């Protein structure tokens, strides 16, 4: 459907411009538009509007939903120029942390309240602890989350364990993305814009009038940005660039009162290059002259490396059926089938491989010959996934009781493989220059000429596949006794889930795995777990505008296996149990809103990764390591505080502020594996929760006012976090009879500012056509900080800088 990214960009931009210039305003049906407007809830310009959420599987006012929840509307996302979920990593919602998996924007880490990811979840048989949903459909993988967003109604961040209504892998919470549905009335929204770093953006959102009870909505999006860090190698891709495009259409059929069938199809293409890992300080080894220590955010990489985009392709089908046999009862079915392929190509860490113990930059090939040092480790990983899910819901109202019940079936098949090899070589023993190795170069084989001439045909170092199945049944009911004037609401819920994972570890470290008997063979995974998650919530409407609640809930992250491990042993689920109290208030005649939540709980069976020597069954332990995942002993804890304040001090002016304090305690654990010399570290290794700043805050100002012939709109936001760890453990030196800790560094604290300024509601001739033009900026003050830091005593301190300031202009035409 799409030929090339540049061609698609031109086509979509041309479509947006042609829609802007050629489509007649007369196409819009004024009566239909008026009917649509009258169907919306009336809101005065002097009051805060209601926010509708679906956190409890039914539309509800967020202020009356007794859980901690933050919501970003589609307008909020546009004001911050959010292209994909990774752009929420600037801290717009303090309790939410979104970040690339290491250097890869193609796979995202999602944490809520510091819970979600501890080890490497970029694997087939491992899961994240925050569930990501789009229109009620769970997205099973971290890969594929970097695609461009379609026409979003709102993004709901449900904080705390959601095990009762949302099930597995929601121990930290859930990210619920809701798209705009077909309205049955004509509406066209086109957007075209450009920005620095070669950026361009185009969107077309077309809503068609209903015909024979059938409404259709079509969304097409494309976004492009060139590299933020240049690659000195001619013909190779730079770093931190992206090329995204997608198409989505939705058909909503309402043939009779009380019944609807909603089918949606989406397809996305996401090409991105990795972040550039800078060397911040040298280690104890001698650094090559090429290994430049860059103390500020680099615009050019220190050395050139072969680099190609990581490409993700996602497709999804969803059918939602809703039937209302009675006014107080709704039966809903959500069926979905999704596929995803993702390549992850990463050669962004060349500087960290340019150090040698003795200062002589030579090594040995497989025949024992001395050759110049090879560096720049290129990682090529392929990932494939498909998933099917079926959920049935029963939503009803009885006298004094509201309830939701349902069942879910989920099946997922995932397979991956990975290659890693060096692409650059020092030109001499002092490494004052370098050359690019041909794709057929390998130091571990003798017959170089027999090797393939394609990087993707290199030897596979790691491979596995797994099939996951999960079934669950849930129920939740809220009792609001009329004897207490419906001011007290007691909610109870329960969910039963059974997970199973059946898979095989095919290759580890380029060879067959080795079992405990010393036999080289493919290793199976066959494990299953059952789980019950309860929830109790007591809420009181102290007044019409003051609501308080107390809640206890549990959640878990599914068990699995580590595809980087030696034996492919299964590990068990990890769990959280949290008590939460909160208050949701409105005052000043609905001109101000203040919400507060405090929570504390336990964190158990935490899935922790440990490096261990690789054992090949013949030569014993070597220094080449694998990674095993265990459930750490002991009980950890989480607690925190969240606050949100929104004020409308004057017509057209909205002020918003939010804050989160987060603390996660994980008990220290001992690495149970011997090192290559047979020693065992007796030290309890401190364990940190990565991607978890202890303090985060966000403030925003939105202002609009009429000006002659238009509306002036301005947005400014500032976002702070106190920095976070990127690794869960300290690096540990283990030698004969001795051990010493080297403490893991913490990322820098940061304040990022974004802004938008524009004119909207500019009339375009007759009819309802309106033009809006705006200027936008992300990281307006061009603030620099290293958000990800990694320390190796031998090679030094390295890290990823945040993105530089990006500026753009765009035009939007609506009919």
Give the SSE map:
Blueprint: H1 5-22, H2 30-39, E1 52-53, E2 60-61, E3 69-73, H3 74-79, E4 96-101, E5 104-112, E6 130-134, E7 137-139, E8 152-159, E9 173-179, E10 187-195, E11 199-207, E12 214-225, E13 242-256, E14 259-272, E15 278-281, E16 286-287, E17 310-326, E18 329-346, E19 355-356, E20 362-364, E21 370-372, E22 374-398, E23 401-426, E24 434-436, E25 462-479, E26 488-507, E27 523-541, E28 546-557, E29 560-561, E30 570-571, E31 574-587, E32 592-604, E33 607-615, E34 621-631, E35 635-650, E36 653-665, E37 669-670, E38 684-685, E39 695-707, E40 710-721, E41 732-735, E42 738-741, E43 750-763, E44 770-778, E45 786-792, E46 796-801, E47 806-814
Parallel strand pairs: 6-9
Antiparallel strand pairs: 1-2, 3-8, 4-5, 6-7, 8-9, 10-11, 10-47, 11-12, 12-13, 13-14, 14-17, 15-46, 16-19, 17-18, 18-22, 20-21, 22-23, 23-24, 23-25, 25-26, 26-27, 27-28, 28-31, 29-30, 31-32, 32-35, 33-34, 35-36, 36-39, 37-38, 39-40, 40-43, 41-42, 43-44, 44-47, 45-46
Task: Describe the fold and architecture.
With 815 residues, the chain is mainly beta. The protein has three helices and 47 strands. It has a 22-stranded antiparallel β-barrel. The protein is globular. The model is unreliable at 1-42, 676-680 and 733-739 (pLDDT under 50).
Shape type:
globular
What percent strand? Answer: over 45%
> What is the helix content?
under 10%
Tally of individual helices: 3
How would you state the average pLDDT, rounded? 88
- Provide the low-confidence segments as ranges: 1-42, 676-680, 733-739
- What can be said about the biggest beta sheet? 22 strands, antiparallel, barrel
